[in-house]
Every structure is written in C-alpha cells, then in structure tokens.
Automatic annotation (TrEMBL):
Cofactor binding, per record: Binds 1 FAD per subunit.
Keywords noted in UniProt: FAD, Flavoprotein, NAD, Nucleotide-binding
A GO molecular-function descriptor: NAD(P)H dehydrogenase (quinone) activity
Coiled-coil features, chain-numbered ranges: none
Provenance organism: Parvularcula bermudensis (strain ATCC BAA-594 / HTCC2503 / KCTC 12087)
Binding site for FAD: 72, 161-163, 324
Binding site for NAD(+): 198-205, 221, 282
PANTHER family cross-referenced by the UniProt entry: MERCURIC REDUCTASE, PYRIDINE NUCLEOTIDE-DISULFIDE OXIDOREDUCTASE RCLA-RELATED
SS bonds (residue pairs): 63-68
Pfam families: Pyr_redox_2, Pyr_redox_dim
Domain Pyridine nucleotide-disulphide oxidoreductase dimerisation: 362-465
Name this polypeptide is given: Dihydrolipoamide dehydrogenase
Chain ranges of the FAD/NAD(P)-binding domain: 27-339
Catalytic center residues: 455 (proton acceptor)
Length: 493
C-alpha cells in the first residue's frame, strides 16, 4: 500500500532514502534542472541538505541543448569556411569553398547531443529519488503543487526556471517560417536567406555564422547600435566590420508578414523578403505557471521576486532564486555561481551569508569579439581615467590579418585601479579573461604594466591602454618600465 505520508529510511543516524508517498517533503526543493538548478542542488546537498530537483522535462540544460554549445558549434563550422575563403592575402590559393549545409547541421547536432547526454548522465548519477519529473507551482510560502497532483513541502526552495525567447504575436503568426534558438539547431540544412531580428549577442553570433556559411543574412536592430556597445567609436568599428559580411539596418523596428514563399519585413524606410526569420530580441525570465503571488513574495515590475543579489534570497522568505530567472545576468557562469550561492543558503535559510559577486563579464563570440567587463561607458562620457589600445594597427593582429577594433580600459583616477574594460577586438574572449581576472584581483595599470608581456602577442597590444592610464596618474609610467614601440606595431606608444 502506498503510504499516505513520505516514509524516511534511516541508515544508522543518516538519511538514506525515502519511499515516495503521494506527497513529497525535503529540506531544499530546486525548481528547474538547468545550469542554475543543477548547481543549486549540488551545493545544497554538499551542505548536508536533503534535496529534490524538479523539472517537467530533464531534457538537458538550455546551454547544452539550444544555447551556448550548439551556437558555438555553428560558429566553429563558419570559422572553418571563412578561414578557407580568406586565405588569399597570405598567398594561399584554394579552390571554391562549398558548404554542405546538411553536413554542417549534422555535426552541430551530433556534438550537441553528446553534450546533452553528459548532462543527462549527471541526473542519473544523483542519489536515488532526487529527481522529480513535474512542473511545480506555489500554493503557499512553503508549499508547491506538482502538475501530477502531488503536494511538495520544503524548508526552502530555489527557483531556477530560466528564460525563454520573446516572441510577439506578429512573429508567432509566421508559423514555421519563424526560427528562434529553440528551433534553428534542428534545421536539416541551411536556408538560402535569413532575416535576423535583434542585434544582441544571440542574433549576431548566429547571423555571422550563417553569413560565413553562405546564407544571405540581413540584421535588423531596433536601437542605434549593435550588441549594446557602450562606446560609439567601437560600436561604429564593429558595425563597419560586420557590414562587410551581411546587410545591417539599425533603428529598424520591423513588422513581419508571411507570404507564400517566405516572409516580408517592413520598417520605416525599408522592406525585405527572406526565406526565414530568426527572432533574437531578448529572453525574458520564465515565470509563467509558478503562481509566485501565492508564495507571498514581493514582485518587481517585471514579475521577478525582489531578491538580494548577494544571498539570492527573496525578501525574508525561505525562497531563493538563481540563473536567467533573475533577469539580471543571463549568462552561464552566473547561472552556475548563483545556483551555488542560492543552494548553500537554502540549506540553512536561518543563517544566510552574503557572497562576493563576480565583476559583470559578458561577451559575444563574433569576429571581432565584443567583451564588456565591469563599469564601461562611451569614452567621452567616462568619469574614470580611460586608456585606449588600437587593434586596427596592432602588430600581431596585422600579422594574422585580424586587425580591427580596439580596447578601452577604465581606471580609478587616484590609483589607476582597473574597474572596467570594453573590447571590440580579435581574440577578445582571451584578452577579456585576462582583464576580468585583473579587475577581480584589484590590479592597477602600473602593476599590470609590471607584468611580463611576450612579443609578439595580442596581449602586448593592451600596453598602450595601460600606459595611457599611467600617464594620467600622478607618478606617470613607472620609470623602470620600457616605453618603446614594438616592431610592426604603429599604435603602441
Ligand atoms: C543561443 C544561446 C546562446 C548562448 N550562449 C551563451 C554563451 O556563449 N555563454 C554564456 O555564458 N551564456 C550563453 N547563453 C546563456 C546561457 O545559456 C543561460 O544563461 C543559461 O543556460 C541559463 O541557465 P538557467 O539554469 O538559468 O536556465 P535553463 O538552463 O533554461 O534551466 C531552466 C530549467 O527550468 C525548467 N522549468 C521551467 N519552468 C519550470 C517549472 N514551472 N517547474 C519546474 N521546472 C521548470 C526548464 O525545463 C529548464 O530545465 C546563451 C543562450 C542562448 C539562448
Ligand atoms: N555569448 C554569450 O554569452 C551569449 C550568446 C547568446 C545569448 N546570450 C544570452 O542570451 C540572452 C538573449 O540574447 P539576445 O541577444 O536575444 O538578447 P539581448 O537583450 O542581449 O539583445 C536583444 C537585441 O534585440 C534588440 N531588439 C529588441 N526588440 C527589438 C525589435 N522589436 N526589433 C529589433 N530589435 C530589437 C535590442 O535592442 C537588443 O540589441 C542574453 O541576455 C545573453 O546574455 C549570451
């Protein structure tokens, strides 16, 4: 007979498992088995909590399935095609580059499936009874009900339901002519033409990849710049470079219309027809169906519970929040960090401790890459000291024929301590890591200039920005540091 209440099995003094009754109870219930939820479960369990991880699908994380990984796989294929096509300046003459779209998509899905399988294996490896396949909604501050009718009570909850693509009705009406990140990686082959609506990281990464794979791509961005780049000159550099590979319209708010053989998009001053549309205008937090009001939480205007970013706790409740659901830092490393903090605090909600939050660090894996770290602004408006390194003329970038863009470093006027960096540059993902780590470590421009810089490297390019900052400080460039231009580097100095 199924017990009316959960029965706990004890092994000595330790909890060893449970026999499920119609209702469920645990110390920490984690709602959503994505990156943030998986981290939260692991973190709470590490603190000795008995956990339940609840998700209606357990399909694998957004990152592995329809996010970071398949998008980078598509970009990798595009890079291979681009490299073969652009070898001419090095004196390399290849034949015509032909892209086998079906083979490209097969590789994307094959490796994607391996990444997803890895996530699913991690669910299998959890202690018995930890995963519960269901959607959950609140019926009170300490209670949820599952869509299979079971009731769930917990001492604390971690909400980690992620985000989803924004799809206004006019775009939904395009039916199967509309692509989002949820559908595009399932395509058997590549379209002839693609209109990408939204010039943020998601839209641009996929737009450039598609263009390099031979798709005729047009990007339509509502604002006056791509990827929200805070500095106007870098935004223009980026726009100019990307415009050599695809058509881009800024300040274009489009109205879509389905026609027999595609989609027509119209905006003030223009129109176009494309085979398909990729919509990438943002990913709002997934809150639907959670009945957050029943949990007694104070909700912000966007419907997300008010929470403390250092504890991830919602008000004074025993409810914590993590990942894209917060609507604040929708990135993989933040989802993982937030899940860990939220899980640890949920394990002992009476003694929550504030955690250090990492410097904001985001990037777009375009070429050139775009990186934003910490406090950034247009160089004309910055209230900090600003140093600039030009990668349009930098030696190593010229060697590789990747010379474009630049790096802005922002520092405290008194000390030269770095507080921000903005890059539109080759190898931006690697330079960005160096700078993010330097900022986290509290490095100043003079101390960084005192580090070894190998020649000829991209890192060396940052020296001119560091010197700019030193020159604005009282003591100038340290007198025992060299100040010379490297061979082939017209910008350094
Ligand atoms: C195309 C694309 C490319 C990206 N590229 C990068 C990148 O290169 N680098 C980077 O850092 N970030 C990238 N991101 C962002 C990154 O993928 C997300 O920040 C991260 O995956 C968010 O993790 P999460 O745990 O918050 O959400 P998810 O992984 O989406 O997990 C949410 C889970 O909640 C479940 N759920 C929803 N509702 C309920 C409910 N009512 N009850 C129970 N469970 C529920 C869902 O089924 C899902 O499993 C990309 C995103 C996209 C879309
Ligand atoms: N490399 C990465 O880390 C990476 C890559 C892809 C996605 N992501 C994450 O996924 C999330 C979603 O990405 P995203 O690029 O969709 O969102 P986003 O909010 O970053 O960018 C959306 C863009 O669409 C524009 N826009 C909004 N409404 C529009 C409209 N009606 N018409 C035309 N343009 C419009 C916005 O001005 C903005 O430039 C991001 O928050 C990002 O953190 C990260």
């Amino acid at each position: 007979m199924t017990p009316r209440h959960p029965v706990y099995v004890l092994d000595g003094n330790h909890f060893a498992g449970r026999i499920m009754g119609p209702d469920l109870h645990c110390d920490v219930a984690i709602i959503g088995a994505g990156t943030a939820g998986i981290s939260a479960e692991r973190s709470a369990r590490r603190q000795g909590a008995q956990t339940l991880l609840i998700d209606p699908h357990f399909a694998g994380t957004v990152c592995a399935r329809i996010g970071c990984m398949p998008s980078k796989l598509l970009i990798a294929a595009a890079q291979a095609a681009h490299g073969a096509r652009t070898a001419g300046p090095f004196g390399i003459r290849g034949g015509e580059v032909r892209v086998d779209g079906a083979a490209v998509m097969r590789r994307v899905r094959a490796l994607r499936d391996e990444f997803v399988a890895g996530v699913k294996d991690s669910f299998e490896a959890l202690p018995d009874g930890t995963t519960v396949k269901a959607a959950a909604h609140f019926t009170g501050p300490n209670y949820m009900t599952l869509d299979d009718g079971r009731r769930l009570s917990a001492r604390a909850f971690v909400l980690a339901t992620g985000s989803h693509p924004a799809v206004p009705d006019a775009f939904a009406a395009l039916g199967d002519r509309l692509e989002t990140n949820q559908t595009i990686f399932e395509r058997e082959t590549l379209p002839e033409s693609l209109a990408v609506v939204g010039g943020g990281p998601l839209g641009l990464e996929l737009a450039q990849a598609m263009a390099r794979l031979g798709v005729e791509v047009t990007v339509l961005e509502a604002s006056d710049r791509l990827a929200g780049i805070a500095d106007r000159q870098l935004a223009t550099n980026f726009y100019d470079r990307l415009s050599t590979e695809m058509t881009i319209h800024l300040k274009a708010e489009v109205t879509p219309r389905r026609v027999d053989d595609g989609v027509v998009l119209e905006w003030a001053g223009g129109s176009l027809k494309a085979e398909r549309v990729l919509l990438a205008i943002g990913r709002p937090p997934s809150l639907e169906g959670l009945h957050l009001a029943a949990a007694g939480l104070t909700l912000k205007e966007n419907g997300v519970p008010d929470y403390d970013p250092r504890t991830l706790r919602c008000g004074k409740s025993a409810i914590f929040i993590a990942g894209d659901m917060t609507g604040e830092r929708p990135l993989l490393h933040e989802a993982s960090a937030e899940g860990t903090i939220a899980g640890a605090n949920a394990a002992d909600p009476d003694h929550t401790a504030p955690s250090h939050r990492l410097v904001p660090f985001s990037m777009a894996f375009t070429h050139p890459g775009v990186v934003s770290i910490g406090e950034v602004a247009d160089r004309a408006d910055a209230r900090t000291v600003v140093g600039y390194a030009d990668f349009g003329t930098q030696g190593r970038a010229r060697v590789e024929n990747l010379n474009v863009g630049g790096a802005l470093l922002y520092a405290e006027p008194q000390t030269g301590r770095l507080i921000g960096a903005l890059l539109v540059a080759p190898m931006a993902e690697h330079l960005g890591h160096l700078l993010a780590w330097a900022i986290e470590a509290g490095e100043t421009a003079p101390t960084l200039l005192d580090r070894p810089f190998y020649h000829p490297t991209y890192e060396e390019g940052l020296k001119s920005a560091l010197r700019d900052i030193c020159q604005a400080l009282e003591n100038g460039v340290p007198k025992d540091r060299d100040d010379w231009d490297r061979p082939g580097d017209h910008s350094d100095g």
